[in-house]
Design goal:
Length: 310
């Protein structure tokens, strides 16, 4: 909601400008140049914007004379602001006067400067059109999209206005990200790893610190890889460390190397099931019923069929 100088309320700036017969771009340009609200809305487009042109005779490309540039613009039915912008861009007089105005091809930056196209505006700020569009699509303001230089990039090349914004996108805290980078994690791993998967996070549920995940897992008598896999499946640290690994069952299809849906390798299907905390029989039954490998491993079983801790 916006108000004019008389206190009248409008839903949008465009609605207010339409009421005063004023182009929206002209309104924003005037306000940027510190015109007061009343003057910006009520001053005729040709009266104040053209102070230096009203008294100067001019000639068009055909030799026709006019008492002012404003009069010439009116004769060719183009807005004076469009005329000035085209002059600034170095257009020929003929092109300035006869080229139809296409609103899609005209761009206005955050300072109120007109450009013939968004592409021309991007060139003026030294930024590619593709990057500008991507920034705007990500919710950046016009000024940020055009001028921001010190951006933060993730491992995929995506830009963020700050480290905090990047971490929020990946769902981790800045301090967690900083700690992982300190301990030598690559950028992609620092952003994507679940909490507890790096040596920097080698702290058990009792608060004891260890030099590495391997040392901590060894202390609790479990395999490091199984611990990491459990954490990645959102197990608590206590559960991941204290849930015992079942001994190999007779029907476990042992003796073969198997892979889960993520590409992780196991010495047997039994070991793979242990990592996902499901009974081998449950897994086998699901596969026999046509379940996908991912669903067979990750779907939580009912309490009746959940592997019991000893």
């Amino acid at each position: 909601m916006v108000k004019d100088h008389l206190g009248n309320v409008y839903k949008t700036v465009k609605e207010m400008c339409d009421k005063y017969g004023l182009p929206v771009d002209t309104y924003h340009h005037r306000r940027y140049r510190d015109w007061d609200l009343e003057t910006a809305l009520t001053t005729d487009v040709a009266s104040r914007d053209t102070t230096n042109f009203n008294k100067k005779e001019c000639t068009d490309h055909l030799g026709n004379k006019f008492d002012s540039v404003v009069s010439m613009c009116k004769a060719y039915n183009i807005d004076f602001d469009v005329y000035k912008n085209r002059v600034r861009l170095g257009w020929r007089l003929e092109d300035i006067l006869i080229t139809p105005v296409n609103k899609r091809d005209i761009a206005l930056d955050h300072r109120g400067i007109y450009y013939n196209s968004v592409e021309d505006m991007c060139k003026a700020y030294g930024i590619t059109l593709e990057k500008f569009k991507k920034r705007m699509k990500s919710g950046w303001s016009l000024e940020e999209a055009l001028t921001l230089k010190n951006v933060v990039k993730d491992h995929k090349g995506n830009e963020f206005r700050s480290k905090k914004e990047m971490c929020e996108t990946y769902g981790i805290q800045v301090k967690t990200f900083d700690r992982r980078m300190q301990y030598g994690c690559k950028l992609g791993m620092a952003l994507k790893l679940s909490k507890g998967c790096t040596d920097a996070d080698a702290i058990d549920h009792l608060g004891n610190k260890y030099s590495s995940i391997h040392e901590m897992a060894l202390h609790y008598g479990i395999n490091k890889d199984i611990y990491v896999e459990r954490i990645r499946h959102n197990w608590s640290v206590k559960k991941a460390l204290t849930t015992p690994i079942r001994k190999k069952a007779k029907n476990s299809d042992s003796g073969e190397i198997v892979e889960d849906h993520l590409g992780n390798k196991y010495r047997s299907k039994e070991e793979m099931c242990n990592a996902y905390n499901i009974l081998y029989a449950t897994f086998r039954g699901r596969i026999d019923r046509g379940w996908s490998l991912k669903d067979a491993l990750t779907t939580e079983p009912s309490d009746r069929y959940r592997r019991k801790s000893k």
